[in-house]
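Researcher: If only I could read backbone structure tokens as easily as an amino acid sequence. Walk me, if you will, through where the backbone shape changes along the chain. I have put the entry right below:
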Amino acid sequence: MSIDFRNLNTLWGSILVETLARLGLKIGVVSPGSRSTPLTVALARHPQIEAIPILDERSAAFFALGLAKQLYQPVVLVCTSGTATANFYPAVIEAKESHVPLLILTADRPPELRHAHAGQTIDQVKLYGNYPNWQAEISCPSANIERLRYLRQTIIHGWLRCLDPVPGVVHLNLPFRDPLAPTPDLEINNLEANFDQEAFFSHISRQNIPINHSILEIPSLPRQGIIIAGLASPQNPESYCQAIANLARSQQYPVLAEALSPLRNYAGLNPHLITTYDLLLRNAAIKTQLTPDVVLQIGELPTSKELRIWLEEIDCPRWIIDPHPDNYDPLQGKTGHLRGNIEQLGHLFPEKPDNNREYRELWQKFDQQARFKIDRLLAAETKLIEGKISWLLSQYLPPRTPIFISNSMPVRYAEFFNPPSDRKIRPYFNRGANGIDGNLSTAIGMAYKNVPSLLLTGDLALLHDTNGFLIKKYFVGSLTIILINNKGGGIFQMLPIAKFDPPFEEFFATPQNIDFCQLCHTYGIDYHLISDWTDFKQKIAVLPESGIRLLEISCDRAFNTQWFLSNYVWGVGCGVWGE
């Protein structure tokens, strides 16, 4: 791209964008506005960057989050000044907590217009508090070559801080004076005549992405141990699963595998997987027999509350393997942190003789019994219940399908019921802050120019982000939305507050009566109401090649809760094993 010398602002914007392009930026997500005009024009005209306009800033931010999750590199997010910037905040929080690289460029009024009741002017400096990896305000544009170098180097630093030492958010606030449109300014011509573009950018390379992880010590492990593999969305899921499998074999440890990690979907690599741990640990006699001497925790803990309660009870040493500097122990136990990737560290643990087999086989025996009971229970259920949806998806989706699993009950049902398979399905999620904001927009970002993808969501989570459907105009790819419509907040039905009505139904369950067929018609979304499980299996076995479609499954919230308590919590969970 040639630098745009039409005026000072186009020069500033094009230097900024060209720097990002040479660093490797592929996509910029832009919300419309006047003050951000120089950035929007530069992104829109760059031949190597895809600029996507999204009307709603909150939706745009989550869409960018989904793209960054898919690409494993920074996505640029642009908006105008004022309250538009505040609408990025929920996605900023999620990106920080889940280590997703976002480079946020907020346009602003120049300093002389601040604190003077100029329109669309708020205090945007350090707007996102402590959530960014780094944040700075760029100076107002200048045609001085030294100032252009300053801009270039600041952008390079911001890009790198998006990635290292931990992926996350960088916020750059950019004030612009008028004229904002690319109207010609003859005074800039002298600089253009003496500007050597290749020399100016010659030192910028896509290799400017440091990787700097290390480990200080490898512990000596006792005989009886387990591996807990928590939620993870690695860039190379097969090598990630292989590394855990190698560690499990060398130590003869069973692997408790969260559904929001690739492990359950690469079961052929690891014969030591345990997927029914939530159910097993609801049985007092069984969990006593399964007490380990040590726990190797890979990444964050799984979602299961029963697992967390059990870990608190046994209070044994726990080693957490993860490259990030975060504290991944909300239980405040006897933990040590090994800073590094499992792919780097797994082979460093000394191989042990096969003296843990009896303990491992005990886990596997109970797991096989529990899996048999769960599968038999769900296979026999003819009514449309929530738990069976995730169970069927794990078996009937096309191999390697990316699936975004929304928060609240969908992530829990996946953990409770999803069996191991070798279908190589790729789970995505927003578990950094565990919120329902932006799930639809994030899923659309995940699916953008990807293979046919799927979103599993509840009704309230979808309604919380229906502006995400406005992205449809620019969407390239295929996304199938599985909507669990129980007309309210099903997760609250599981909590003690459900026994207190009022105020439970109105203030917690928050019932809704939306006609999702009409909603889909409004946005031009293909809609289908699922009639039975045969219909459901047929529609998920083959996904469309393009477009967005919604499959609604209507469930009875009260019946679903009673079914779960009767059959899972009180029934299978506390029944006699081995029948």
About this structure: The first strand starts at residue 27 and ends at 30. Residues 207-216, 574-579 have pLDDT under 50 and may be disordered.
